[in-house]
Amino acid sequence: MDPVRVAVVGAGVMGLSTALCISKLVPRCSITVISDKFSPGTTSDVAAGILIPHAHPDTPIHKQKQWFRETFDHLFAIANSAEAGEAAVHLVSGWQIFQSIPTEDEPFWADVVLGFRRMTEAELKKFPQHVFGQAFTTLKCEGTAYLPWLEKRVKESGGLMLTQRIEDLWELHPSFDVVVNCAALGSRQLVGDLKIFPVKGQLLNVQAPWVKHFIRDGSGLTYIYPGASNVTLGGSRQEGDWNLSPDAEISKDILSRCCALEPSLQGAWDIKEKVGLRPYRAGIRLQIEVLARDGQRLPVVHHYGHGSGGFSLHWGTALEAARLLSECVQALRTPAPKSKM
Ligand SMILES: Cc1cc2nc3c(=O)[nH]c(=O)nc-3n(C[C@H](O)[C@H](O)[C@H](O)COP(=O)(O)OP(=O)(O)OC[C@H]3O[C@@H](n4cnc5c(N)ncnc54)[C@H](O)[C@@H]3O)c2cc1C
To answer: pLDDT by residue (tens digit) across 153-191?
Structure first.
């Protein structure tokens, strides 16, 4: 039986993790990842990469929790292996702090992260402007190392990488039997999905090796995340802004907000600005669509729209995309019933 030819469009964290999940879960496929940009040129390379989900209003919470748990388990295993350094995946402990008591008792992901608990009065003394906080241990994953790590594994399992911009998914027919669309914001043009839009985010990567705990304001707007090679300071959110240039005023504001929470950051050096466009969609799109032209069909699995929390859910949604692809492959391998004429 000939292998089923699979094209994965996009080489961010979704495209590469989906390609890897397919190579593990769906037998007898040949996989080609096609993208106009690879690491370090994607949004996924900009991300802070902390595992703290943001709820998507149009996706059921039980699904988001399942995807977060699967992602946490996958990265936890990497963090506990000899691969941790190369993949830049590490455990990190810290605090999420609030200026007023949050309305929800606990976030939906509280029993997935490790050791989730209320902060003590003694811990809260560090943050005199805040009245409530949660302490927990989660994971941080640096895209600039994790993406090449994923890419290497896809290649080791026989996958190919092709640098090419796709203008229309139908271009991939008949060279490929099935397509997985992991083009994130590119889906606006590729499939005309106007439900996805950019939320520009700016952050700073700095050297401050004494900072060991993460600190995150409950709104998620201000954060300090120590990582393997630097400390990430954030952030900003500008809906509908496609401009990839950093704004000096925003950088100043980020530094000042972070220094208010961790004054020792005034001594940080080697400050690098980064900007990325979060692919925001009220619901993550994980769905099969069959394109048809002139009596020919091309099944497509859509896998995009992760907004601010793609790293937090990527492995779980990639497993689901691989399951959808497996359904398409089974349908292709099942001979059509013969006509009774
Ligand atoms: C400042 C910032 C901080 C963030 N911090 C976190 C965090 O701490 N934790 C977290 O979980 N998430 C975070 N995120 C969100 C996370 O980065 C995204 O959810 C995630 O990277 C989306 O991955 P993706 O693969 O869908 O998209 P992308 O990384 O954008 O990849 C899309 C790919 O598709 C390709 N492509 C697009 N159109 C075409 C086309 N027509 N033809 C060929 N190729 C195409 C692109 O070149 C690219 O390779 C952050 C994002 C930003 C901007």
So the answer is: 999 999 999 999 999 999 999 999 999 999 999 999 999
Q: Is there a cis peptide before residue 337, judged by omega within 30 degrees of 0?
A: no
Rounded Cα distance, 198 and 306, in Å: 11
Chain centre to alpha carbon of residue 189? 21
Query: pTM of the full predicted structure?
Result: 0.96
CA 227 from chain center: how many Å? 16
Percent of the chain with pLDDT over 90: 94
| Residue in 337, 37, 21, 31 with CA at minimum distance from that of residue 184 | 37
44 is in an annotated binding site: yes
Superfamily of domain 4-89+142-193+281-333: NAD(P)-binding Rossmann-like Domain (3.40.50.720)
Q: How far apart are CA 116 and CA 91, in angstroms?
A: 14
Q: Is the bond preceding residue 235 a cis peptide, omega within 30 degrees?
A: yes
Query: With 90 as the cut, is the pLDDT of residue 333 above it?
Result: no
Q: Is the CB of 201 under 6 A from ligand 1?
A: yes
Which of 278, 286, 301 best tests ligand 1's pocket when mutated (most atoms within 8 Å of CB)? 278
Output the pLDDT for position 212: 96
CA distances from 287 to 47, 171, 270, 330, 339 (A): 25, 20, 43, 16, 30
43 touches 53 (CB < 8 A): no
